[in-house]
Queue: 4 jobs
Job 1
Amino acid sequence: MITAVTRAARRWRTALPALDRWRAVRSTLAFGACLTVVTAVAGIHYGVFAAIGCYVDAYGTRDPFPRRGPVLALLCAGLVLAFAAGSLAAGDVWAMTAVLAVVAAAATLFVHTLRLSGPGSYFVVLVSALAAFLPPVSLTETAARAGFVAVGASVSWLSAMSGRLVRPYAPEERSVSAALRSVAAFTAGVGQPRGDTSAAQRSACTAVHAAWAALDDTRGRAAPALRRQELDALMVRLETVLDAVQNAAERGGPPVPAAWAPGLREAAAEVRAGRTPGSWPAGPGEEGAPSPGGTAACSPPSPPSSSRPRPRPSHAPRPAPLPPRRSIGAELRQALSSTSPAPTIALRVGLAVAVATVLGWALPLLHPAWVAVGAAASLQGGPGRQPSQRAGARFVGTVAGVAVTVLLAQVYQPGEWATVIMVFHGVSRALPPSALLLRTLLNTPVALLLVNAVFPGPGLGPLAAYRLLDLTLGMCLGMAAALLVRGVPRRRVCAAVSAAVGATGPALAIRLRTGTPHAASGGTAWRRTGDLWTMHASVPAEEIRSTDTADRLWPALLAVRRLLAWNLLAGPAAPAPADGARVGGFLHALAEAARTDLPGSARIGSALSHSPRTPFPAHDPDLHRRLTALRSALEHAALPSPGTKPPADGG
């Protein structure tokens, strides 16, 4: 009996989302300090404005500190400007509509392009809409309110950056540790009878991509710190292991050594704890391991030993990993390119907010700002979820939050201090982004108590009822906007595929012609592949109805990444100018074909029928196999079956 209860408790704990307790403590302290101090000094109204500024703490929690600092600072400035613009437009419906639409579109473009972790542009729209639907005030009062919003945003910025004093490399270490765990899970599944490793492979590649992005976000002009160099070296070695495991999975050969998976899990625990692993699975190119094109007969990891030296980072020039570092200005310019999904997403959010603003003004609603907020809410947040799923989760969470607030009002009438909102606020920040329903449930009482503190007239009961009505209306408008502006245009998806394939051609051509990788062309190829990765992640999250677009993109994305991994990991070889020219021309033809339609379509198949035969580099048959996989991914939206032998004619 005790054993059964223990097992049930373990399953229950596993089902619960992981809590970030330290973040909850930081958020609660920052939120409570702003509300308490400003209320004591200037009154509850200004205390609420300072608390609104604390919404900045919803962003940037997974970003490394070197990137988190400047990007969050820009977000703080944008939040204050959005509040001031909304306040200045108050009282004029058309000015409010224009301001809120521009704020929603600009904030969506900013957050999406800079890959800032958090709930999208939701809180920026919330702050601007709250200011716009308040009664008009003088310019002096607007400046005072915006100043207190800036106080709250500044405190939240300091709170978000406080972890740098304790563990300055913690975000990168978490990302690298997650990559190690995902590759370990993929490794454990390869070669198992009746085992489908496609999901584990996708998870491993996604985690490795996220780890590279986290490391590259820390790069600056100065030489990286020793710890970041160690993490970079670990990721290069992890790439060799991942490449060997993928070779084994694609060829359907024998499983990789059984000791690899536990060795990688042990390494993940070491990195998570801030240490460098003492043992490592021998990957391709290392002692006792095959080359990148070999089989999976790699030697098992050595037993842990405290006397083993740490892996030394390589200082030799090599192509930039995925994706290479770009300035914030360059990333914002990339948002307007033909390969970016951001403009369509921003247009849809701006359109929904504009219509919601007009309706909120025209209808007899108690708190019309929530209509605009609801429209933005249904199209923001919830990573990997479609708008309909996000709207459903937010609706259920709002209903539950309203019920909790009404029940709370029966036993507790919050006064001016309403300290209970600090508890709700901190707990909601501890939840992961995937727990959208629970986050909404906990955030709803916070919003109601804050508004009730500023407008104590109607009481919590009517305010909660109107919250549910207004937010539901706004989410319906968001769904309507999602139907009118359908996801990401196909031409942008095709352009991203074509750009990634086209940039890979010069990188491989120079690699074959010279025998060594070229940093500039390789970095460009990784950057274009990173853009394709962003497109692949954005497409399913912006579709009102499920399509197979993301699934059709995945084989091409994986095939391009496999080519770039070969370019990065393969050892020096004799120059082969003729092979370089053939490979470059072949990939250029594939890139032109990819521009015509999505992978697997009849149009792209027709275009590929006129492309050159797949080159067969004499010195590396493995490259031919990877080129064949890319062609198959574009033509059939699928990779060749495991164990498939290349055609004898090289076609």
Job 2
Amino acid sequence: MTRVSPASTVMGAWRAEPPAPPDLETPLTARILIVDDDERNAFAAVQALEELGHELVVARSGEEALRRLLTEEFALILLDLHMPGMDGYETAELIRSRKRTKDTPIVFLTAIFRDEAHVFQAYSAGAVDVVFKPVDPFILKSKVTVLTDLYLKTEEVKRQSAYQQWLLDEHARVKAEKAQTEKALRRTEARQEAILQSLPIVFTSRSVEPPFAPQFVSESIRDITGFPASRFVDEAEFGSSRIHPDDLDRVVEGIGRAVKTGRYSVEFRWLCADGQYKVLQDQGVIAPSVDGEPREIFGVMLDATDRHSLEEQLAQARKMEAVGQLTGGVAHDFNNLLTVVLGNVDIMARKAEDEARRTRRIEAIRQAAERGRDLTRQLLAFSRRQHLTPVTIDVNALIQDFAPLLRQAVGEAVTVDLKFAEEMLCAHVDPTQLETALLNLAVNARDAMPEGGVLEIATRREGERIAVDVTDTGVGMSQEVRNRVFEPFFTTKEVGKGSGLGLSQVYGFVQQSEGEVRLESTPGQGTTFCLLLPASSTPAEVVKPAERARTIEGGDEKILLVEDDPTVLALTLDMLTGLGYDVTTATNAAEALEVIHSDAKIDLLFTDVVMPGGVSGVSLARTSREIRPDLRVLLTSGFVGEGAVIENAEFPLLDKPYETALLAAKLRKLLDKPGRRKKQREGAAAAE
């Protein structure tokens, strides 16, 4: 049965294993059949022929000899003529009658039939020779040697002939298989070429040496760029010459880095034949040579223009959704605040009330205004445009001092566990904003543990930054919630239970402080917020809690007030004059500079940062200082935008909205010189 090997399949078809070549190495041997009913005669024949080295087989009768000849092949038959039952003549006749044994040489052995008639009959029965008994060993060996040598030579010729035929057959088979394989290969190449042309993918190979010249580019490049593949292969600089100039260095660096890393992936803009840029995504791997060194880069290239367009549309849609959500949230909260303000003002304007009720309404208006101020600051924190006053603080000490307020905020059901690093951890941040961020995280953790739990705050150093880990044992967050948790006004709480700005403040504050916020959360397993803050090598400053000024101290200096909003101008003028200051006003930078030039008695310039006319309060302050180097400057703004000026920098800044006490304290800090207030007080006392 023909065997079939899976390893011999080509293109899915099964092929029979090729026939094995004839064995030419194994020496040929002859088998001799001795047929004699007399055991002594058979033994004598065996003794005479043993030294020839052939295989000797003895049969005791003609029947036994015929049975052996049915399945075995012999080079020579030594056949006794006189045997009981079937004699030698009859046996020889039957041997000659079979096709398989008709040419096998037969030598008759006889001790009785020696006359010519019997000898003639023996030759007529097919014998090639007759040997008389008792057998002469020498004569028997000679006759057997001649016949067996003839047999072996004949078999060797047959074997050589079979080998030659095998060679011819094998040549024909290999030739046919080669033709079939070449046909299958051409069919496969045609199919692959059709597939390559139909796919929106470009297959490339290029050199590993700059400028990474292409060695092969599939023809599908024409559908993407409008240029044939030959342009890229024949002109080494053609592909790189049409990369957008802003992307070229990044592409060269990315592909060059692949020689070390083994792979690369870059996106770039490429100028197509129609004059338009397309975004191409190119990625590949290094194919090592036989000796293990990089040899060439195999890669694929895709047209990512449509994907980029869809991503931009999706980003724009998400941005508009966020803007809509932000607008709606701001409108909701501010409308609530304005309802309180306008309602109380309306009641106070329509009817007279006793002092207690009037005081309560004024306090309600104040609280609404303060909530509006806090809401604005949270929005600015998220947008990373709030006014920060960073100093170097001991993070461990700040958290330790702030812990009582945190415990009060989370309630008795939540255990606050502090774990500080053994070393002092100094960070350069705004301490007030850090406290606010910790409070927001603590409140968020409390709401995530309705049945109580553990809130752990731990500090550690991570490289060049200080890490503050805030971990709760609450309900955790899903992936969808984690993706949106820092969006302003996004909240999973019930309506009225949260503004959705707490985590936005945390994110904005940390980002503006040049830090990073990491979030790890698993539903049912709690949440960890990691605040990574910029470390500082300078000694920590002692930061005291902000307190409202207990006394309001004014003065008699002359102040130039610059404000373009008439309502704010009138209010601030009332504040300043109420504090005893001599105030001159201006509505823009041009008017202010006229006053600076004309009035040398101006002690302090108090100006808004954002003003019409193209000249900001910062520019006004710089110009005024050039005119009057000793002039004090205080800036104020509700939102300074890009290029915000921070405290302890070029000019101090007072955030809007501000109260009289805070304004008074800022002014006195700037106007008071060492010994000046003391002299003023002594002079006033002497005058009295």
Job 3
Amino acid sequence: MSRRPLRIGNASGFYGDRFSALHEMLTGGPLDVLTGDYLAELTMLILGRDRLKNPDLGYAKTFLRQLEEGLGLAHERGVRIVTNAGGLHPAGLADAVRALAAKVGVPVSVAHVEGDDLTSREDGALTANAYLGGAGITACLRAGADVVITGRVTDAALVSGPAAWWFDWAPEDHDRLAGAVVAGHVLECGTQATGGNYSFFTAHDVRRPGFPLAEISEDGSAVITKHPGTGGAVTTGTVTAQLLYETQGVRYLGPDVTARLDTVRLTDDGADRVRITGVRGEHPPATLKVGVTRIGGWRNEVVFVLTGLDIEAKAGLVRSQLAETLEGVADAAWTLARTDHADADTEETASALLRLVVRDPSPDRVGRALTSTAIELALGSYPGFHVAAPPGPAQPYGVFASSSVPAAEVPHTAVLPDGTRVPIPAPAPPAALSAGPAVDAPLPARPAEPAFSASPAFEARGSGDGAPEGAGAEPRETVRAPLGALAGARSGDKGGDANVGVWARSGPAWDWLRATLTVDRFQALLPETRGLTVQRHELPNLHALNFTVTGILGDGVASGHRFDPQAKALGEWLRARHFDIPVHLLPPPEGTGP
């Protein structure tokens, strides 16, 4: 007998997300499971530093405070809670939840998942954690746990693990698991699926978007929605944006399954409802990703404010005055942001910012001695000298790197409510299975779809600059306009790499985007990516392209390598660059449409 769909929600997309979200999700409508994602690469570094100060810490303390009221609400409503807030110490957080339950008089059973912590295997690492899958979560729920605490699992595992429990899926149910993984990827970042950080945010009221939930069916298909009456919006656009976030390639590799993003299909299913179907899954890889954080050294910065005329000369004077002081510093980077405007009517808009960032293995070389030298220039440098903030002491910065480890070597363990420890075996190699394609095997044939075809004019020009004479088609009228007039984007970080997902809002716009936005054009539009490896991946079902840029973020977000250290706005920069766009592709001006 088939089970009704699993109704699973999200109440946190990062450590520091909306505190009231857990209460809002528990009281806003029916749920079976509520998840919370608290971990990111930067979070592991923060938790690692917490653990250095106190070995009993290393978990997301915010979650425990949210449970002071939420635990009773979840118990009253029969909602299971699954979260990775355990961070580096899931057993410690599980004990803290039990103590809280006893204090507030709520009878709940608590389980946790461990085995991801590989710090002892990595010399000099602050943290080293394997990304586990959802099978440990499934085992805990099958044992009757009301609350499941994990350490570093994949974000999507918080959804795929409960789905496998709800429907009693087997490890070989790759298509179903892949569907749940895709739904989990949509939910994992909270309100990014309901209009937050959305390119076309002006089309919706996103002042306080509600958190998302998924209705997952037994075949792995799902509907993304939100509680009635909450803010924001769920549309094919908002879901597409989140699907493209922080992914690399069409194969979304995971510990339980490899989900094929090029098979995902989205359809409207009513107001604030988007259905996900067609997701195909393949066997997971034999290795697990391991995220490793280290203290990379010490950093400091000074921001000089340059106002009015002769901005370049003023910047050059400061740089020359500090040149001798910076000798011997491991890394000193200057950036001049020309935020100034000519003939400005406010002092702030007449000013540019000159930023100096210094890094060194020693805190002494980049501490107050260096920044004080910069301040000593105050009466003997450029006219109008001042800085954006007083100088401070050197601060440690972290670096992130990823490696892999055979899945069979990681002691993935479910610790059940009664204390029983259940080892979770790694998926069997593909050769040992009677079903399921190998990772590199082509997908089974589907019904034929119309092949992509650009007009001869587009095929001839390729770069979007108009068809050459004699190309075989009448050239279309073009207008210079930003790419964002017809395409959305979302970008993010993966260690030192960045991804930029771009999607078109119509079929004809997709034909143009696919033919026009090549890797060469991408790098020309975003000069900071020149000299780096850029890969382009096509997702035709989503009318989308996904670009991965290797190394643009240096050693990851915690190293502060770049002005936008997590590449959050890289996609919006791309959307602001101008193309010669065929006029017929552009949407009509507001007020002229139907």
Job 4
Amino acid sequence: MSADPAVGSEADRTVGTGAAVPTHCAYCALQCGTLLRRSGPAVEVEPSPDFPVNQGGLCQKGWTAPAVLTAPDRLLSPLVRGAGGALVPAGWDDALDLVVSRLERVRERYGPDAVGVFGGGGLTNEKAYALGKFARVALGTSQIDYNGRFCMSSAAAAGNAAFGLDRGLPFPVTDLADADVVLLAGANPAETMPPLMRHLVHPELIVVDPRRTRTAERAALHLQPAPGTDLALALGLLHIAVTENHLDKEYLDTRTTGIDAAWRCALPWWPERVEQVTGVPAEDQRTAVRMLAEAGRRHVLTGRGVEQHSKGTDTTAAFINLALALGLPGRPGSGYGCLTGQGNGQGGREHGQKADQLPGYRMITDPAARAHVAGVWGVEPDSLPGAGRSAYELLDALGTADGPRALLVFGSNPVVSAPNAGHIARRLASLDLLVVADLVPSETTELADVVLPVAQWAEEEGTVTSLEGRVLRRRAALTPPVGVRTDLEVLHGLAVRMGQPAHRFPTEQRTVFDELRRASSGGRADYAGISYERLDAGEALHWPCPATAGGNHPGTPRLFLDRFAHPDGRARLTPVEHRDAAETPDAHYPLHATTGRVLAHYQSGAQTRRVPELVAAAPEAHVEIHPGTAAHYGLGEGELARVTSARGSTVARVRLVRTLRTDTVFLPFHFPGAGRANLLTGAALDPVSGMPEFKVCAVRVEPCPERRA
């Protein structure tokens, strides 16, 4: 057995005072350019003045990101659950030996698929790649997926079907600044990625959202459908495009297939019928289509509000159909795109964390893909497992007769972020072994048998891929604290103990990236021509970037200008039919509830809830409700409400919002304990993408006995 990697000393945890380390933000998929500087014992952040995406700006989360580096409860030692039931500090050798001995016991008794792996969309490309390899080679399990399934999977499925390729934005973010009109469907970038709004100053905005969000307040036109009816609205917009002669017929004839079938699905959705179903006035529907059709440069962008449904793939496809009918995708200055959410949501799904994929966006069921990747890994293709369960299905199966009995979690907090969260917490608690690698305690580490402290954002090298498909270098400003290891070091230590040769799981990020390049070569997400050297030299490289004889492929900032990625070069319009959400209001649960994010917090809040400035801005769970609805149920501003669905209840502070629909309440999902919004959300999944229905469930609201607590 090779020696485990050494951990850094406290004396090494320095950056020269005043020295600037260029890197990228810890949070969303914009990956804003930042500079880190040492100022006394602290690290300060400032925006990079020349990175084109944020153009010298940062959001509140980005400005305060260094505070997480020194969180008072930062994990600095492995923790093992002792005989008394408490988590107690342990040495690395003891912790890793314990993990491997218990994993081997589970595998011997139940087989390799009795061990699961759950990753995260914030892991670097190197870590996502190594995690997928570890699952399939060291563990031999098919049971791996990641929290990005809860974020981008519907858009990915729809994009692959339409274009033959899935990249969030198939054009640079900066193209948006020159647009005349941008339709934002289910996206609220003014709160979720504020620097993007710098590129949306010139365009007229059409915003589709049940709430009048900060983004909708800046819109020229706000379409406010009832939750769960976006698909009917998108079909209605296509109906108007056809009946009012806005189709780009030459584009449809030469660059697409499927308009006739798509039109047959849209034919019954005339504007007045759409108004009855969605609540969006017929004239506003017509205005939206005219604005898009008559503009010179125009984009259709979708976000989580469209995608996080049990019909999210079809709804995204319907908005893509609209964009194709108007001739937008693959045309300079116009297009369709999806606003990827998590920091490495794009790269995280390209290199092996998803249940059905291998590196390079290769499908695990493809014999040629298996042979290529197995060759890079030095194993036999037949030794690789097949496709496993999608994220919610994996979590739902934990501890059951045919599900995993052990789970390794890297970079995720499913106790807060998963739908039907109370049920998922019970499934996690039923495991024979739960191992969590994280940088701070979370609601999921509280259930773990072993907690492994890992390095974060500013403490390690690596790459991430932004929403525009641009591969970016993250650089270390500090070494990890004493007692903390990188995820790559953790995977190496586990793999070697399981009998893998040490060289198969390297700990150097550059070495892992070079292997990733070979594994992705020839795949849809081809990184073979990208290197640390090119990135460090300042080149802007968007995938696909294949290897060339001269090693200087320029990358592909704009996809589809000549052809789409299907064999015939044409995009596909997809016939989709509207259907109701899996759960609709009734006498017991008369209101729609929808969930989302707020400006101050990110994802499950495990990091941002440790930043005093952000906690001051959004200290607790709240529920937005129309004043008339609140009065009907005996609720007032600032009081505590109990919100209940068929699955459970959450407690939240009432905020009265006059612009909200009277049939809808909104809850952010960042908060723990009794304030978890995902105690309400259900288990209905999109049949294509595996996306849970986060954006709509049926609830009732009532005062809490402790109304003002």
